[in-house]
Every structure is written in C-alpha cells, then in structure tokens.
Write a structure and sequence with these properties.
By secondary structure, the chain is an alpha/beta fold. The protein is built from 24 helices and 21 strands. The strands form four sheets. The protein has an eight-stranded mixed barrel with strand order 13-14-16-17-18-19-20-21, surrounded by four helices. Strands 2-1-5-4-3 form a five-stranded antiparallel sheet. Strands 7-8-6-11-12 form a five-stranded mixed sheet, with helices on both faces. Keywords: Membrane, Transmembrane, Transmembrane helix.
Length: 613
C-alpha cells in the first residue's frame, strides 16, 4: 500500500503542481482501479519477480525525472534519498546533502517557521508552506513545499518533501508589490503605503495613549525649477530631497513621496506645538545647504502643513486630509511657512472650493473689469502710459481686489484664461481710446508665469492684436524676474515678442534672481523698480542706494526705468534727482475705472486730482 501512496503522490505532482492533495486522491483512486483491472486482464507477474516491481519502476521514473525537487527524509529529518532536480535547483550534489538535515540549508529568517512545519509533517499532518533556502552558490531560492508523512520502516516515520522552485514568481510578485507601494523614481514609499502604515500606527498609538503627527511638505516654486531647467533637473532635486529628508526620521517615523514635489511624514513622538517646532527646525536645517544640480546651485524652501491626531481622529484618510488643508493654508500665507490644522481651517478649505467655482462662473458671466493706473513722465507730469489691473465685480461681495483671488487662480490654472481675458480687454480698450481721439499711449499688461511658459505665446498675442486692431507698439507686456531663471527660454520668448513689435518690461525688479550678466542680453525696454524699495528710500539708506544704483545701471543699459509705489513728494524728488524716467503710484493716482482715467487723459493729472479734492 505504501508504494501506491508514493506513486500517487508523484503522479499528482505531474498533474497539478499547485494543488497536489486534490490530485493525490484522484491518483490513488486511479491506481486502485488500475490494480484491480490488471489483476483481471493482465498476465500474472513471474514468480521470480516481486509483484510490486513494475510499480516500483514507475515510481523510480517519476521520482528521478520529476521537474520538482523531491527528497525523502528519515525520522531525524535528514536526507536519505533525493532526485536529480535537487541538484539542478539547489546546486548541491547528492554527496553534499546525503544524511544532512533539510533545515541546514534553510535561510535564517525562515528557519524557525520551517522547523515547526516539518515537525507537523513528521507527526502525521500533511503540510504545505513556502520557505527559502540558500543555493550552493550563496543566493536565495524560494520554494513551495509539500511535506507528506511516510513510514520509512515499521517503527520509523519520516516524510517526503516535494519542492517547487517559485523564485521567479516570487520576484515577480515582489516587483508588482514594489510598483504598487513605492515611488519608482525616489524609491520612497508612495501614498498608498503611507496610508496603510499610518492606519497601523494610529491603531497602535490609540492603545498606548500616544499621538501621531502627519506633516505634508511641498517644495516652494518647484514648478519653476522644472520650467527653467527641465524635468531631469527636477528629478535630480527630488532625489536629493528624498535623501536629506530620511535624515529627519527615527525608527518609529515614516516618510513617503505622495505626488510631484509633495512629501509626507508621520512622527509617533510629536505630541504638541513644541514638538512640531522641533521637527520643522530639523527639516529646515537639512534644507539650508544649497542643492547642486550639475553646474547650478539652488536654494530650496518648503511649505509645511501639520495635523496632530486626537481622540476623535478616525482613520489615516482623515488625518492626511487635515494635513493637506494645513499645507494649502501655509502656501496661502506666502510659502516658506508652516501651519498646524485647526477646526477653523475646514471652513477655509470649503471656501476655497467655493471661490474656485465662482471664478469659473466669473469668466463665463464676464464679471471681471479693468482698472487703470497712470504712468507719469517725471519731468513733465504727463501721462505716458497706463497699467491695466484686474478687479472682480462679484455679484454679492462687490468689487474684489486681485490679492483675494489671483493666488488661487495661479494654483488652479485659471490664471491662464483670466490672463487672456485681461490681455484682450486691455488691447480693446486702448484701441477704443485711440478711436475716440485720445493721444496714443501704451497699455501695460502683466503676464503670469503660466502664460509666459505657454506654447506659442507669440501666436496667441499676435491673434489678440489682430482681433483688436491695436498697433503692437501700444502694448507693453510685464514679466517678473523669476520668469527669466531659464535664461535660454526667456531670451527666445522675449525675442519672439519683440518681433511682434510690442514693448517688454521687467516688473518688481530687485526682488528676484536676475543676473546682471544675463540682464544685458534680454531684449527688454524698461525696468520697474519694486515698490518695496521705493517705500523706504527716505528712511533706509540701503534702499536709497539700491534704487539709485538700479536707475544708474538702467541708463547705462539704454533702458527706461519706472518706479512703482510713489506715495510722497519726498520720494518723487529723490527719484527726480536720480534721473528716474517715469513714476507710478498713489501720489498721482490710485487705479481708477475707465471713466475717471478718461477724465485724466482729457484734463491731465493735476486737474483731475484737483477735481477730487
């Protein structure tokens, strides 16, 4: 009977390697049927040949030529027989393994579990399990093992191990798992694994009475790095950031890259605001040293949102959502800042969604209007240009200033259609003034970062000029210094704009990153000194020196210069003495609507100012 069992096992292996026990029953039944039929139909086996010899020959063939490694073990768990597949799969010869325990080649991390499973088999319980062994050359081989108890002698029990090599399948499973749970670029865990681990940590901390703090971190102006240097440099920066952030962790903390330039941490030892400050100080410390992107040196700051768990905190999703809301609030505050979530932020987040929807509606319903601030020749006091500034005539809130909706428009991408509306409306209005007989003057329009990096910017602006029939010389486009970080792109785009015949100025000069070496290469017409310098020129000698230097440098570059934010007569005198060309600010006029500007164009600044007193 023992022979039939062994033969049936081997047959089952050939038939169905992944479910040997199901097939074993069928094979046993088949053998019994065959035996019965043979006893009736086949000639008897010669007396000099043992009756089971034919079956033992089948068994030997099945055993030796089976593609799976099969070993027979005595009651001490040592090899007493093995087939050829053992040598090909494990690399050991028969001599190496004979009378050696199977556990002698099992990997250390699997040893204890495998010993227990083999003991179950020796106790008479068939067992199927996965384990791993060391190949003779030293690498790991993963095995799917079926352990079957067997009687070796009348009073000696051993087992048979049928081992299928599943190394490739296991590696494939691990690769699929890696792709599902890890970021393929930085190697850090992704959002899915972060959420799973955070759920586990939250459950554990609730039992222990501790708190968990989730930190969402977003790299400030990361898009500018991609736009300026290319995605390869952006990826280089992300890899360096991932490496530095790992320095901020202990064994109980966790780091992931959730998307784009956003990283997520959770800390198990952060209980209050003081602990949060300590962690943020450590994060800022690793960001202090500049990042090297081949020949470029880059300083990076981050905005951080923090959410600390409480007794009411549910699953990881909730805490992650709160951290995301806090991060959005930190970016609203001006970036390079952090915010800790509180219940008031929920309403703020809802308001942001409502505001975004209202902005989309405002575009459709044409709720935006333009205001105009005159630009004045400092010598004659004559209006020589106007800057078009957007306002939102909200149906319920009245006139909304741009600082309340432009940041959200930039984040959501709505700044592109809004910017296109401003450009078209400004050109159309300027053409109308000229048709009505007003002296032709240029109108200035600010380009957003997204607009400046749009494909075919030249074609879009040409189309607007053709639609409105405005001569290109009466359109001035204002860009910021930060848009010129990608020098090659900036020069190419500016050259294309100059080919149209429009004027170009750099706005808020002095607050960005312009290199004076590259500045002379930019095809621009005018620099605008930022109001932050003009504001304190009469009280801060450094600001006065900066403004005077910018004016002198601009003249040497054969450019015009205009100062923004002029609010006092003393400021005006200082700028005049230093030969500033044009000025703009509340000393002359705040931004005004179309009708009031037309009054100024008709009667001049002084008359218009006198009429308001």
């Amino acid at each position: 009977m023992g022979v039939y069992v062994v033969v049936a096992i081997c047959v089952s292996i050939f038939v169905k390697p992944y479910a040997p026990w199901i097939c074993l029953l069928g094979a046993l039944a088949l053998l019994y049927v065959l035996r019965a039929k043979n006893s009736l139909r086949q000639p008897p086996i010669p007396k000099e040949l043992p009756r089971d010899h034919a079956y033992l020959s089948v068994l030997d063939s099945l055993f030796e030529h089976n593609p799976n490694a099969i070993g027979i073990f005595n009651d001490e768990g040592k090899f007493i027989r093995m087939n050829q597949a053992v040598e090909s799969i494990l690399g050991y010869s028969v001599t190496d393994l004979m009378h050696q325990p199977f556990t002698g080649i099992v990997t250390e991390e699997q040893l204890e579990t495998t010993e227990w499973q083999l003991q179950q088999s020796r106790n008479g319980i068939p067992y199927t399990f996965d384990t791993s062994v060391l190949h003779q050359r030293g690498y790991r081989v993963d095995l799917h093992v079926t352990a079957v108890p067997v009687d070796i002698h009348h009073h000696s029990k051993g087992n048979i191990l049928i081992c299928q090599d599943i190394t490739e399948r296991k590696r494939g499973d691990e690769q699929v798992r890696y792709m599902a749970y890890y970021d393929d670029m930085t190697g850090l865990p992704n959002r899915r694994l972060f959420k799973d681990r955070l759920d586990e940590r939250l459950r554990l901390c609730k039992v222990e009475g501790h708190k968990v703090a989730v930190f969402y971190l977003d790299i400030d102006r990361f898009k500018l790095v991609n736009d300026s240097f290319g995605h390869d440099y952006g990826n280089m920066l992300l890899l360096q950031l991932a490496e530095r952030f790992t320095r901020c962790l202990t064994a109980e903390d966790f780091l992931a890259r959730t998307e784009g330039d956003e990283f997520a941490f959770y800390y198990s030892n952060v209980e209050d605001v003081n602990d949060v400050m300590t962690v943020i100080a450590e994060i800022n410390r690793v960001l202090e040293k500049p990042f090297l992107l081949e020949q470029y040196e880059l300083h990076v700051t981050a905005s951080i949102g923090v959410a600390i768990s409480s007794e009411d905190t549910g699953e990881a999703d909730e805490l992650m959502k709160y951290a995301d809301i806090a991060l959005a609030r930190a970016k609203e505050k001006g970036r390079n800042d952090f915010q800790i979530f509180n219940s008031d932020m929920k309403s703020v987040s809802i308001n942001r969604l409502r505001l975004e929807n209202e902005l989309r509606r405002a575009l459709v319903n044409e709720e935006f209007v333009l205001y105009y601030q005159p630009q004045v020749d400092i010598g004659s006091g004559r209006i020589v240009g106007v800057e078009a500034l957007i306002r939102w005539n909200h149906p319920d809130k009245g006139m909304v200033m741009p600082n309340h909706f432009i940041p959200l428009a930039e984040e959501s991408g709505l700044i592109v259609p809004i910017g296109e509306w401003v450009l078209r409306a400004a050109c159309k209005q300027n053409k109308t003034w000229q048709s009505e007989g007003y002296a032709p003057i240029p109108i200035s329009v600010n380009l957003s970062m997204r607009q400046f990096f749009q494909h075919n910017l030249k074609g879009k602006i040409r189309h607007v000029l053709e639609q409105t029939e405005l001569d290109p010389q009466y359109l001035e486009l204002e860009i910021t210094e930060s848009m010129t970080m990608d020098v090659d792109h900036a020069i190419q785009s500016l050259l294309e704009l100059k080919e149209l015949g429009v004027n170009v100025s750099i706005d808020d000069f002095g607050t960005g990153y312009s290199s004076l070496y590259y500045l002379k290469k930019f095809p621009i017409d005018k620099l605008k000194i930022d109001r932050s310098f003009v504001r304190d020129i009469m009280v801060d000698p450094n600001d006065a020196a900066i403004v005077a230097t910018i004016i002198a440098m601009t003249h040497h570059l054969n450019l015009k210069v205009i100062a923004e934010g002029v609010e006092t007569e003393d400021q005006l005198k200082f700028l005049y003495q230093n030969r500033c060309n044009e000025v703009q600010g509340y000393w002359f006029s705040p931004p005004v609507d179309r009708l009031e500007l037309e009054h100024m164009l008709r009667y001049g600044i002084s008359v218009a100012a006198a009429s308001r007193e």
